[in-house]
Write a structure and sequence with these properties.
The protein is mainly α and about 180 residues long. Helices cover about 85% and strands about 0% of the residues. α2 runs antiparallel to α3 and α3 runs antiparallel to α4.
Length: about 180
C-alpha cells in the first residue's frame, strides 16, 4: 500500500468502508454507476434548460406582441409585413436558442473547472501544460470567431431581407398603406 498513488489509497479506503473488495469488477461497476449518474444529471439539465427556454420564449412573444399592440400603427404603414412577422417568430426563436447556448456554455464551464481542479490535484505539471495548450487554442478560436463574425453580419442582413421579401410575396398579403 505504501507504493500506491494517494488517490488509489483513498479509493481503496472508500471501497473497504463500503465492504466491497478493491478488484477490477467492483471498480468497473463503480465507474458504470458514475457514468449512469452523470448521464441522468445531463438529461435532467436538458429538461430544465428546455423548460426555461420555452417559458422565456412565451414571455418574449407576449412582451413583443404587447409592445406592438400599444405602438403607433402609423409607423407600420411604411414597413413591409414580412419584417413584422419575422420579428414575432424568428427573432424570439433566435433569442431562445441564444439562451440555450448560454446555459450550455455555463454548464460546460462548470464541468471544465471541475476537471481542471481534479487535474491540478492529481498532476500539477501536466495540468500546466494543458492550460498552456488551452491558451493557444483559445487564441486561435478567438481569431476564427472574429473572422466568422464578419461573415455572419453579411449573412444575417441577407437572410433578414430574404425572409421579409419571401413572407411579403408568398403570403399574398399586401398592406394598404392608407386608411
Amino acid at each position: 500500500e505504501g507504493n500506491q498513488h494517494w488517490i488509489s489509497r483513498i479509493v481503496t479506503r472508500i471501497f473497504e468502508s463500503l465492504g466491497l473488495p478493491f478488484e477490477l469488477w467492483t471498480i468497473l461497476l463503480a465507474l458504470g454507476l458514475l457514468i449512469l449518474v452523470i448521464s441522468g444529471l445531463k438529461y435532467l439539465r436538458l429538461i430544465l434548460v428546455g423548460k426555461m427556454v420555452r417559458d422565456f420564449m412565451v414571455w418574449m412573444r407576449a412582451w413583443v406582441m404587447g409592445n406592438l399592440l400599444q405602438a403607433d400603427i402609423s409607423y407600420f404603414h411604411s414597413q413591409t409585413l414580412g419584417i413584422l412577422t419575422d420579428t414575432l417568430t424568428t427573432q424570439t426563436a433566435r433569442a431562445g436558442n441564444s439562451l440555450t447556448l448560454l446555459a450550455n456554455m455555463a454548464a460546460t464551464l462548470g464541468v471544465m473547472m471541475a476537471y481542471l481542479a481534479a487535474a491540478l490535484i492529481i498532476t500539477p505539471i501536466l495540468t500546466m501544460v494543458a492550460l498552456g495548450m488551452l491558451l493557444v487554442v483559445s487564441l486561435v478560436v478567438q481569431f476564427l470567431i472574429n473572422k466568422a463574425k464578419a461573415i455572419s453580419t453579411v449573412l444575417v442582413d441577407r437572410e433578414m431581407n430574404f425572409q421579409a421579401a419571401g413572407l411579403e410575396n408568398l403570403s399574398g398579403i399586401h398592406m394598404v398603406k392608407s386608411f
